[in-house]
Amino acid sequence: MASICFYFQVHQPLRLRHYTVFDKNDQYFDDYKNGSICRKVANKCYLPANRLLLDTIRQFEGRFKIAYSITGVLLEQLQRYSPEVISTFDALAETGCVEFLAETYYHSLSFLYSRDEFVEQVNKHAKTIESLFGQKPKVFRNTALIYNNDLAGLIESMGRFEAIITEGADHILGYRSPNFVYSPKGCSKLKLLLKNYSLSDDIAFRFSNRDWSQWPLTADKFAQWVNSVNGNGNVVNLFMDYETFGEHQWKDTGIFDFMRHLPEQILKHPDNDFKTPSEIAQSFQPVGTVDVPHLISWADTERDLSAWLGNAMQSNAIHELYRLENKIKKINDEKITADWRKLQTSDHFYYMCTKYFADGDVHKYFNPYDSPYDSYINFMNVLGNLQSRCSRQTIASA
Amino acid sequence: MKVFMLGWEFPPFISGGLGTACYGLTKAMDQLDIKVTFCLPRMVSSKYVTHVKLLSPNSQRSAASFKIDKLKNVTFRTINSPLQPYSTPDTYQQRIEEVLRQKQKTHGGSVSLTDTALSGADYSGDMYAEVHRYAALAAELAANEQFDIVHAHDWMTYPAGIVAAATSGKPLIVHVHSTEFDRSGENVNQMIYDIERQGMEQADKVITVSYFARNIIISRYGISGEKIEVVHNSVERNGNWALAESGIEKDEKIVLFLGRITMQKGPEYFLGAAKKVLEVMDNVKFVMAGSGDMMHRTIEMAAELGIGSKVLFTGFLRGEDVQRIYKMADLYVMPSVSEPFGIAPLEAMDNDVPVIISKQSGVSEVLTHALKVDFWDVNEIANKITAVLKYPPLQETLANYGNFEVRKLRWKDSALKCAKIYEEALVAI
Questions:
Q1: I need a labelling partner for B42 at 20 to 30 A (CA). Which of A221, A354, B78, B165 fits?
Q2: Residue to substitute from B349, B385, B401, B408, interface A, most A β-carbons within 10 A
Q3: B94 and B152 co-located in one domain
Q4: What angle do CA A30, A34, A38 make, to 5 degrees?
Q5: Could you list the residue range(s) of the whole structural domain that residue B112 is in?
């Protein structure tokens, strides 16, 4: 028996506008750029992919299932720039074959810096998902699948989650396979779902790579790889960015056709089925405990935090940001708090990464800045303004 | 492989990037066992004491020859001529007049400009005539030399290169370190432009120092892109660790401009940015190290902007003084209007100083760990200066990664590229 579990990460950051040390106003975000990117991605990916998956779900009458994690920062942008995308997600929700996961509303790294802030953001996200799609999320995934034992413990203690998702990184699994359900170390009820990064990345990263020995990837071929899990695994967790469809892999690569034919090919094998993450958690007992004392993520080959916190600028920016927390919470001003939280989105720190800067690659592709230095300067200028707004408020209320 | 190179000044006389590049490249060629006859203009009446021994110091019409110990494959031939890098017809004129005054002092009596020019002995009274007189002398010298290829650096040596190549039948490489458009903007000197274009047209290959410069050569000089090769400059690693700590204790930040103070280098944008930075920061001084035809205008401008007390002018610096100023600097800014390459930022980075460079420069093609700005965007220059001074992690990251980055730029690689271009030029013949 192999249950295929698709979960798509759906996120767009709120990009900052060019903000110099001489700027004085509190308009930090580039509405024009964010609006046009949001609409562009909606047209290239969200709308066609939602339509395709909705058709497929209807076609298979309950036998094809998927899950989404949509960030709060994206939902806000969709409501503003592309509300039709929200309605198509809602239509997907109504099929009963789509599960929505929980994460931090602001796609933040708050778990690393403030547990209180983290919990608030997870709650805010869950509330938003429930109000939009009528579901209480039961499975949690952290930004970039950042994970360790402590996170699992914290999520279990929140009481409402059945499972947590992370990367099936080799260095935590060793000889073990990601194709089973595990228990996080120290948890009694919470289950751990691990991404099968090899099969996931075949679709997300390698699909259109003509140098890849397996190119072109067909639905038939991929289904055979999934079939081979039968007998030595229960689940195949295919976790990837939703933008894989039409944005990272363009339409002319055939990615949509691949996805259209995949369910049929997978279901040809009588032992295969599709399950959502919470169904996986309910259907399978853990085969063992996974111990992750150190933080892992799904990023780069290192699978660590160096993409966000690898250099002095990144760690300085994020420390300065969280240093404001007490002040912000004391001031309790809606606009200030929202701005502070929008600055927590992990992408801002990812842009400051110098790791692969010289080589040019995936980091550059997603980066609105010419260089990590420009992004740091811009972020710090904005943060400087936020700091002075806080100081003014504190003085005013004193 | 033997190269007849028409180059410029050598240490300790270096006055700018052209000399630095000629020296760096030739030294690297020497290490690659490429034989070089290095021909350069020099006034015999130089006021500087030199560490090299002239073998025939009395030679007037032709050339003196000498070797520098550590460069075993290079023979130097000096031609007695007042040509200097960065000369303009005006500065040339001033220099000639200065030389005449000195002569009058020593010899007494009167020596007039026209007398000397007419007698045609040591040099010509006007620069163009001098460039051609130099070409004739270089050709004479070349006639007695064996070489495979002629390599001429910047426009004043192109006529010499053309003649040497023509009389020897060897291929000509012209090496464009800058063009008249970089130096003079749109107010080009037609005569210089014509010499430059003729050099590029007659050359078998044109080497230039960046894609930025290559575009100018294609679009402004109409030279076919196939013939133009880019060889980026490099930087001589600073081995001078012996320099004692300067012992400077400063409570002010120092932002450095180091280069000739000319239109090309954008000194007014530096001051414009300084003015803006001083609106938000107080404990900072702006140091302008260098001299040039806009120096007086720039000093006045600092005063007009009301930041006279915050801007210091050091004049032209050499040797250890350059090292010392880098040691003091928190940031180096090069707001050049049009900079074919720009070696100075590499030297700054080699000294652990972060740099802001204009996007209108060749060096921005080879650097990633530098802040880049449009030269005219004074607001953004000021924004970036302030950021470097205000956020220590930025300064630190730029300095660390930047220093690492410049270590990868080596003259040896530039020399290897030139050698490959020589081969191609020789095959084509």
A1: B165
A2: B401
A3: yes
A4: 175
A5: 2-234+411-428
* pLDDT 10s digits, A76-95: 999 999 999 999 999 999 99
**B368 reaches A (C-beta below 8 A):** yes
Q: How far is Cα of residue B264 from the mean position of the Cα atoms in its chain?
A: 12
* Residue A1 confidence class, pLDDT cut points 50, 70, 90: low
Tell me if B155 sits within 8 A of B195, measured CB to CB: yes
Same domain, B271 and B225: no
Over residues A266-324, the pLDDT tens digits come to: 999 999 999 999 999 999 999 999 999 999 998 888 888 988 999 999 999 999 999 99
A354–B contact, CB cutoff 8 A? yes
Give the tokens for residue A335: 């606009």
Is the pLDDT at B405 greater than 80? The verdict is: yes
Q: What is the mean pLDDT of residues B31-43?
A: 92
The better pLDDT of the pair A361, B158 is held by B158
3-state secondary structure chain A: CEEEEEEEEECCCCCECCCCCCCCCCCCECHHHHHHHHHHHHHHHHHHHHHHHHHHHHHHCCCCCEEEEECHHHHHHHHHHCHHHHHHHHHHHHCCCEEECECCCCCECHHHHCHHHHHHHHHHHHHHHHHHHCCCCCEEECHHHCECHHHHHHHHHCCCCCEEEEECCHHHHCCCCCCCCEEECCCCCCEEEEECHHHHHHHHCCCCCCCCCCCCCCHHHHHHHHHCCCCCCCEEEEEEEHHHECCCECHHHCHHHHHHHHHHHHHCCCCEEECCHHHHHHHCCCCCEECCCCCECCCCCCCCCHHHHCCHHHHHHHHHHHHCHHHHHHHCCHHHHHHHHHCCECHHHHCCCCCCCCCCCHHHHCCCCCCHHHHHHHHHHHHHHHHHHHHHHHHHHC
Total domains in the fold of chain B: 2
Interface of A with B in 239-278 (CB under 8 A): none
Q: Could you tell me if A215 and A255 are in contact, meaning their C-beta atoms sit under 8 angstroms apart? A: no
